[in-house]
Write a structure and sequence with these properties.
Helix content: 25-40%
Order of helices and strands: EEEHEEHEHHHEHEHEEHH
Oligomer: single chain
Distance between the termini: 50 Å
Structural class: alpha/beta
Length: 256
Amino acid sequence: MIKVENLYKSFGPKQVLSGVNLEVKDGETLVVIGGSGTGKSILLKNIVGLIKPDKGAIFIDGVDITKADKFALYDIQKKMGYLFQESALFDSLTIEENVAFGLRNLTKLTEAEIKERVKLCLAMVGLNDIEHLKPSAISGGMKKRVGLARAIAYQPKYIFYDEPTTGLDPIMSDVIGSLIMHLKKELKITSIVVTHDMQSAYKIADRILMLYQGKIIFNGTVEEVKNTRNEYVKQFVEGLMQGPIPVEMSFDFEEK
């Protein structure tokens, strides 16, 4: 289980997270929504251990990673897969080498076993016979799926998705959403998904949190989100310009 207690993080004078508390149960898909700059990705990077919080605790399987030494943190991170917002593939490596990167550096699998694992993981995300290609030769949607194949190659217990549908067309966004659901079912993976894509969020979420000004202002099911009277949540999920969340504009605009 993942548990975050009273988490604070700032960068200089800017307070990004201000006392965040959350729990993620085993097998659950938790979706975190909120506007740009509200701290969604920073929260994710704190949970993964890529960033140290200023204050608070983060428990992964009972271990507080904020107090763990580098060896204990490393053991916890072995249980994690991470899908980066821009896929973060190595341009100079082939698709096979990208997916196998963690396997070659973190496991004692033979080359034959690695090749078989790579092929299996690519097949699980709907990609076949592209191992020899470079990232420049495939589409944005395929890059996302290769990144996902790399994330599951190490057979993690947890997967963290940072804006998995950003830059994709609606059809490919739906494909990625279906893959996230498929992996949860087939691999029993626990997931945290950061997104502003509400169609995708409604499809994949067991529960949805909303971050605003560094705090969680909503925690509920998909149905509760759709029927909420919280004006902040309602403005965000319906994509409204007018509401309690201020919109910065450099021009005057009046609706007719």
